[in-house]
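Hey, I'm writing a tutorial for new members on how sequence and structure tokens pair up, and I'd like a real worked example in the thread rather than a made-up one. If someone can provide the structure for the chain below, I'll link this post from the tutorial.
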Amino acid sequence: MTGAGYAPHMNGDKETTERPTGDLVRQLSEQTSTLIRDEIRLARLEMLDSLGNAKSGAGLYGGAGTAALYGVGAVVAGLVLALALAVPAWAAALIVGAVLLAAAGALARMGRGRFRRAAPPLPREAAAGVRQDIDTVKGGLHK
């Protein structure tokens, strides 16, 4: 016997080591814990990488929205200046502003209508599946 309870045996020209079951279970537990910790660490790194990409994407979308807002402002200013060729500048600004406010009001009314028609967000299929499972279990208990 060598070491702490290990008995080497000769199988042909190969030496094998029989180890106590407790040692094997302990080693399995340690290796499983290590594997789980490593998988969690890998998942965390993947999530951080994905989050970094999402943050930069959100920043780019924000930049695009800001540029679009300034672009819309320039187009509105152009409309005011073009209309100012036919009417006084103050009247042109009022006309363009009134048209934009009317459009915003119409969009707000349509949005409010859509919200009112929207059903509450209920997981109908999941609820039906749970009801069916409960009915199945009840039916099995009654038999």
